[in-house]
Amino acid sequence: MSIKPIRTRTIISIQRPGLWLLSAVLAFFLFLVLLWSAFEYGRNVAGYDSADAEAYIEQLQAQLEESQAEIIETSRRATMLERNTQIDVDASEQLKETLAKAQSEVLTLKKELSFYKSIVAPEQGSRSLAIQTIQLKQNKTGGYDYKIMVSQRGRNDRFARGTIDVSIKGTSKGQPLTLKLADVSNDTKKPMKFGFKYFQNFEGVMNLPEAFQPDTVRVKVKPSTGKIKAIDETFAWSDLAAGGA
Fold it and tell me: Residue 9 — φ and ψ, nearest 5°?
């Protein structure tokens, strides 16, 4: 009489899916901390020497690689959740949403890293200005926190000086209306002047009239020297409120 071999199967089941969700949320907040660190560095980079900036870039690169590895691990866990019929559907959807946000934050971190590298090793050629970042975020009081960053490209061995004009176009009670940023924000002086070698931030809070429906934001950067070209760009309000340019 022959003896049949015993066949065994291993079944892996996730008994505590909440731990996976918690780890994904913690990873997301880690990305926010990294971005805040990058922002704080940007505010003070003008006072750093080249060696300090290069050391920070190496640190930022290591953090980026760690964040990307965390995304891969979180994605693997999300796949496991999809295959487990015992997991709650809502928890799985929350994890997918958190993963998407984390990936978006990593893309932003890459953009910041590229920007700081350009400061340490600027491109050769004629000087020019650029609207590096413009963001809007509605706060609890109904106003909007705004952030506008203007940077200098090419050779940045000299200060760029000039003024910035920001206007918000929209409608009020069916009629077209244009508002100046200085008219709706106590944090903005008129005119808005800039003077920097690398970049400069303009931040504050704007409070729009109750009946005003914003459509676009127009930013005009006017350098004081004719050797640098002026900038005149228009952004959709909906795009800025959704995450910025």
Answer: -130, 135
Residue keyed to tokens 């979180």:
74
Domain boundaries, the chain: 17-120, 128-242
Q: What is the pLDDT of residue 13?
A: 44
Residues 71, 103: Cα–Cα separation, whole Å: 7
- Tokens representing 72 are 């891969």
Interhelix angle for 89-120 vs 50-83, to 10°?
A: 160
d(CA 51, CA 83): 49
Specify the CATH number of the domain 128-242.
2.60.40.2420
Grouped pLDDT means (10 residues each) for the chain, 245 residues: 48 48 57 57 50 68 76 74 60 71 71 65 70 89 91 78 94 93 86 87 92 94 88 92 71
CA distances from 227 to 43, 163, 224 (A): 26, 15, 9
